[in-house]
Amino acid sequence: MSYSDLQRPIIMFDMDGTLLDLAFDDFIWNHCLPERHAQVHQCSLEQSQQTLFQFYHQHKHTLSWYSSAYWTAKVGVDVLQLQYEHRDKIQARIGCHQLLEQLTTQGYRCWLLTNADRAGLQLKLENIQLSPYFELMISSEELGHAKEDVEFWQKLQQLHPFDPARAVFIDDTVAVLKGAEDFGITQLFSILQPSSNKGVRVATEIPYPALDHLTELFDYLENSQVIDAKTA
Ligand SMILES: [Mg+2]
Predict the structure, then answer these.
(1) For the chain, domain boundaries
(2) Is 36 exposed, middle or buried (0-12, 13-18, 19+ CB in 10 A)?
(3) Residue 32 gets which letter from DSSP?
(4) Distance 14 CA to ligand 1 centre (A)
(5) CATH ID of 3-21+92-223, from 3.40.630.30, 3.40.640.10, 3.40.1190.10, 3.40.50.1000
(6) What's the 75 CA to ligand 1 centre distance in angstroms?
(7) Mind listing the pLDDT tens digit for each residue in 50-69?
């Protein structure tokens, strides 16, 4: 890699709820899994919801939360299989491909950093064309820490050196953005409506600038301190 390549800003993206519509994941975890769990365990839907939502609450923001193998063992339902059954519902968020296309054309380096496990990442990549835009795609499962933890970012930097001052990171989860901020990334963006099935969040309640249409990122990049790829 040449010196000028290293000078280019890196745009780091979350996947679910940022580039892809979180409605799919909401549907799987809040609708399909309770139904299937009730069938498998011969209990009422209400009982399943109560059991599962209690598990969700306990494990949120941990690596286990993002592991389909963990959930399959824990609740006795093949969660990955369930996602494959409904894969036709996986959708990109509005502006996703337009943004990625323009960024790569303008010479920005793009990294995909997801808390989805490797199997979950594979499923999404099989259904939505994202791979061509990214020089790096990382599942937190590979690094052994969720993105919420500063250790994720330290490990990432050890394996793939980058300058936090020249990185931009976009993620719909505030706890994840906080982890990145603790590490030293300052140009952080959230997402106003991660799931098309849920309402738009109130921008003033999110402690980071929030994008609606993904291409709004260009307005920020033009005014930011990140050196333009074309002049670096
Ligand atoms: Mg997300």
Answers:
(1) 3-21+92-223, 24-88
(2) buried
(3) I
(4) 6
(5) 3.40.50.1000
(6) 23
(7) 999 998 888 888 888 889 88
